[in-house]
Amino acid sequence: MSDHGAEGGAARSARVGQVKDITSLSNPLIKDIRALAMKKHRDETRTFLAEGLKLVIDAIDLGWSIRTLIYAKAQRGKEAVEKIAALTIARGGLVLEVSDKVLTAITRRDNPQAVIAVFEQQLMKLDAVRMKPDDTWVALDRVRDPGNLGTIIRTADAAGAAGVMLIGDTVDPFSTETVRATMGSIFAVPLVRTSEKDFLVWSGKAAPLLVGSHLKGSVDYRSIGYKGRPVVLLMGNEQAGLPDTLASACGKLARIPQSGRADSLNLAIATGIMLFEARRHLLDLGDTTP
């Protein structure tokens, strides 16, 4: 975690007596945190839960705000945890030191992470997206599986994509399952939520190369000229694929050639293949022949 200087020192000195010790599952604070398992409560509070010390440190370094920090009693006195706790208090957040029973109940895991945190959600507005040459966005239409969404966000991060757009009734990116699947990339990848109508209006004005993945696509995904152009890769619902309204807006309808008996690829796998091809000219490490 980066050095927060005077702010961190002052916060550490003010820390004593400001950490709540909680062992009861009936505590109102714990009930409120456990309720974040429900989308309704996440939407109402505009918060979500993330697990793991490294992930929490990375989130802080990327500028995210902790609403509540929760850690196991055994973590008391550990330097990294103490620094995070001090910083959270200094910025007006809560710090809870809890029993293993409480951590297990919050995370719904038998072996929970020792440090978890409640963060404020961040979503970028579609009209704030300004595409530059070689920017690559992934747009997902009505994706229903949280594991797929989380894996796609993680893959977008790894490939250096500019962000991920969530069209229509796409699953909540801040659900516990999705956040876990991102492995921390939820904090690094800008997310936009939009309607199909607004996405089509925006793409018409922004005029990126809109490449849709489609089983009936006539273009090999490897033959498309991605270099030097702003690109949006449009991926459809796991079962239904892209609707005609979105497919017809694409400049290219691409397919991934297959030779085996499987008639389709997992959505996250297909997105990863498309994304790394679109970014290949930027990820090329050159000739590594000995």
Mean pLDDT: 90
Taking the sheet with the most strands, its summary is: 7 strands, parallel
Number of helices: 12
Question: Which percent range describes the beta-strand content?
Answer: 15-25%
C-alpha Rg (nearest Å): 21 Å
Fraction in helix: 25-40%
Distance between the termini: 38 Å
Count of structural domains: 2
Return residue spans where pLDDT drops below 50 for at least 5 consecutive residues: 2-16
Describe the structure.
With 290 residues, the protein is α/β, with parallel strands linked by helices. It starts with a helix and ends in a 7-residue tail after the last helix. The relative contact order is 0.13. Helix 5 (79-90) links the parallel strand 3 and strand 4 (94-98). The protein has twelve helices and twelve strands. Helix 1 packs across helix 5. The chain has a seven-stranded parallel sheet with strand order 8-7-6-11-9-12-10. A five-stranded mixed sheet has the order 1-4-3-5-2. It folds into two domains: 5-120, 60s Ribosomal Protein L30, Chain: A, CATH 3.30.1330; 126-283, 3-Layer(aba) Sandwich (Alpha/beta knot), CATH 3.40.1280.10.
